[in-house]
Amino acid sequence: MVAPSSSVVNVYPLSSYTFGTKEPKMEKDTSVADRLARMKVNYFKEGMRTSVEGILLVQEHNHPHILLLQIGNTFCKLPGGRLKPGENEIEGLKRKLSSKLGADSASLQPNWQIGECVANWWRPNFETVLYPYCPPHITKPKECKKIFIVHLPERDFFAVPRNLKLLAVPLFELYDNVQRYGPVISTIPQQLSRFHFNMITPMKYEQ
Fold first, then answer.
1. Distance (Å, rounded) from C-alpha 122 to C-alpha 114?
2. pTM for this one?
3. pLDDT of 92-109, one tens digit each?
């Protein structure tokens, strides 16, 4: 049973966070085809891939925004990545978030508070298509992607790799925008609709 309080998410102003840069984090694959080929190799060595991603919320103009990493000029993704074989989902997500957005200094590492899993997406085959369910005729899916909400503190420092951009995108821009953001990110507004956002306004924040 989930405690009622877990449905409340405190959302702080974007201006309450500090952003810096760190060394570039290069992608392992130069194309989608390369990524799927590597996934296939890993599947035969380790089995189904499990990946975890985090929804980090901030607010601007009293509206929730999602932090997305932008690669190049068009492709956006949630921070996260593939778990190691047997790795705990929560600890693995904390590791991936620190890798993507944590500072190089251990003293500046965010204290990630991982909340509920709000969505599971399945990759039936070595293709780009993901579904929010595992098709009944698929007995050996190739990937399960789990999306968690991350409760940010009032203040924090994020270090963004120099080859990436960190964008704060409003929920209304994501909604049903599959062409721009893909099926996973464009359905985040629906996934979050059951949560109550406690918008911490600048006035409240300064008191």
1. 21
2. 0.92
3. 999 999 999 999 887 778
